[in-house]
Amino acid sequence: MEFPECTQELLRTDDCAVVVNPTACYNQFRWSTRTLGCIDGTNDADRKRKACKCCSCVGTVMCNWVKQNRFC
């Protein structure tokens, strides 16, 4: 699976802001099932969409996590 490149334009979107900003929350939950709750969204489907769209702006660990959990 290929993820969008993290461009400045993508990084500035509201979708990516809610994925990039909660880094401390990701560290707290260590990429467990509770990690999805770190992302602001209307429901889990919305959070998964944002995570898939913006994982490359967080890093490889997040892209691996969304792939492993089959969010995308």
Helix content: 55-70%
Q: Cα distance, first to last residue? A: 8 Å
> What is the N-to-C order of secondary-structure elements (H for helix, E for strand)?
HHHHH
Number of helices: 5
Rounded mean pLDDT score = 94
- Rg from alpha-carbon coordinates: 11 Å
Principal-axes shape call:
globular
Biggest sheet overview? none
Low-confidence stretches: none
Count of DSSP E strands? Answer: 0
Strand content: under 5%
Q: Helix/strand-derived class?
A: mainly alpha
Number of domains: 1
Short description:
This protein has 5 helices and no strands. By secondary structure, the chain is mainly alpha-helical.
Index terms:
72 residues, mainly alpha, globular
Description:
The chain is mainly α. It has one domain (17-68). Helices cover 58% and strands 0% of the residues. It is built from 5 helices and no strands. The protein has helices spanning 8-11, 14-20, 23-29, 44-58, 60-68. α2 packs across α4 (44-58) and α4 packs antiparallel against α5. The longest helix is centred in the last third of the chain and has 15 residues, at 44-58. It is globular. The mean pLDDT is 94.
